[in-house]
Amino acid sequence: MESTIIKSIGYNAYFGTNHVVKNVNMEIARNKAIAVMGPSGCGKTTFLRGINRMHELIPDATANGQILLDGEDVLEMHPIFVRLKIGMVFQRPNPFPNLSIYDNVIAGYLLNGIKLPKAEKDIIVEKSLTKVALWNEVKDSLVKKGSFLSGGQQQRLCIARAVAMEPEVLLFDEPTSALDPISTSTVEELFHELKRNYTLIIVTHNMQQAARVSDLTAFFYMGELVEYDDTKVMFTNPKDSRTQNYITGRFS
Amino acid sequence: MDKSLNNENITRSSLKLERVIVSDKTSSIVKGAKRIRRSQQQIRTESIFKNTLVIISIFIIVVVFAILLTLFWQSIPAIKLTGISYLWGKVWDPVKDVFGVYPFILGTLLTSFLALIISIPFSFSVAIFLGEYFPKGTLSDLLKNTVELIAAVPSVIYGFWGLAVLVPIVRGFEAQIGVQTIGLGIFTSSVILAIMIIPYAASLGRSMIQMVPSNLKEAAYALGATRWEVIRSIIFPYTKSGLFAGVMLSLGRALGETMAVTMVIGNTSLIPKNIFSPGNTMASVIANEFTEADHPVYLSALIELGLVLFVVTVVINMIGKRFIKGFSNT
């Protein structure tokens, strides 16, 4: 029996008076890859940013309802602890330009003021970079700045940075939309590896990507969670006519 | 810039010509750029406009260099009399034609750097408050406008305020710590200067902090960083050269400030013993003694002091600009 890690109950998110995520109820099982798709402005990214409380960093942004992480409501927790348990990877690769590749991987520890012994840092760096299949490419240039890497490598470095914190859930906000096709497929392959240890929630604009990488797919439309089901079912036999219209390309 | 202006001109006149051509059926077969027939008049207007801009620009450059040249020219009698020892001579006695400006250089540097030390915590706080914590809102608008107002207040008013309010306070403080109770002096000037230079570092710092890409800040927040950790580890490293440039601009302003300082520094040509001693800055000496300069060498010595001040401020400003440039390139 698979266990639930995240459970959203009646979650709403607003920008000022603009209601962008409407009453989302969703259960996410551990060690699965969940794709969240939908047309632009459907609230999928806002929902994702709500899970690790990034949503409220924007002035005027508010949220209500419940999002349970292992039974604990993240909206009641201090955002710092939420974000330590739920890592995030962004649309554009954003390694810290003033830090070396090595320091970028352990940036989470540096930022939180945790002093680790050198040996332990070395282990974390090697392990995290290995997990994102970047170790062999950069092991001889760890002291170089992270911004010297290619876009795809930078994005994998950002995933490594999130993985280094040993979170339970990893959120991906359109992680490949700024990457070339080859880098995209490298990152997609990573998802299969990563879901052994983490639960992945991947917002994507790209339906083929959702079909390729996810176990379950959620379809958002106009702020509502329209349909949430097994990926195969979603793409072969959608129940809602709006889902059908979206996957057949009637609107995007 | 130049190019886009030209393009606009061409489109506009081609539209005008088009209308003419449409009505004239015989020439409607002429297409594209061939339609544009520039009159001699249009081309002449363009070159007159361009030449005017060039002349005005050159004029401004010439004026600044003329000031520098005049300062140098007028300083020659003093330079001939005292030579390079002018810069470190410790005695300023115009009656005996002894001109040493060391006390004034010392006074200028002391007041300016002390002012900088006092003002930096304030200006950086304002910059962080407005740039990162509260970029919008009533309180921020009030703070922003108030800080801008600081720069707009005429310096003579700061001088008055200093004499009326600050001098008695400093005098009381001096009595408590047991130094001579004059109230006027280096320290009082520094406090006044510190207030006056807050806006320069604060507003440059604010715009630099606002320029920090939000995706870097978000990356840090997503790793569980607190606001303070984001400021310390992301914003400071990213903006340090910009913040430093703001400090240099503040310093440039402090070095040259005349009126307020002259009113509260105590105006003595002796070397200050400590930061509570009265003294003089280069600018305050010039302001105070220019009207009293009763013989040509005295006048020339004051002008040479102006030259020294000019060069120092220009160098400080150039260093500041260099840092801003370095910042915007990365």
Explain what you see:
The complex is a heterodimer of chains A (252) and B (330). The longest helix of chain A is centred in the middle third of the chain and has 14 residues. In chain A, helix 5 packs across helix 7 and helix 7 packs parallel to helix 8. Chain A is globular, with a radius of gyration of 18 Å. Chain A is built from eleven helices and ten strands. Chain A is an alpha/beta fold. The mean pLDDT of chain A is 91. With 330 residues, chain B is mostly helical. Chain B contains eleven helices and two strands. In chain B, strand 1 and strand 2 form a beta hairpin. Chain B has two domains: 83 residues, no CATH class; 242 residues, MetI-like (MetI-like fold). At the A-B interface, helix 2, helix 4 and helix 7 of A face helix 7 and helix 8 of B.
CATH architecture descriptor text of the largest domain in chain B: Orthogonal Bundle
CATH fold-level assignment of chain A: Rossmann fold
The helix/strand series of chain B, from N terminus to C terminus, equals HHEEHHHHHHHHH
How many helices of chain A? The count is: 11
What would you call the quaternary organization? heterodimer
Task: Quote the beta fraction of chain B.
Answer: under 5%
Relative helix content of chain B: over 70%
Could you name the CATH topology of the largest domain in chain B?
Answer: MetI-like fold
- Per DSSP E runs of 2 or more residues, the count of β-strands of chain A stands at 10
- Structural class of the secondary structure composition of chain B? mainly alpha
Series of secondary-structure elements of chain A, N-terminal to C-terminal: EEEHEEHEHHHHHEHEHEEHH
User: How do the strands of the widest beta sheet of chain A line up side by side?
Assistant: 6-7-8-3-9-10
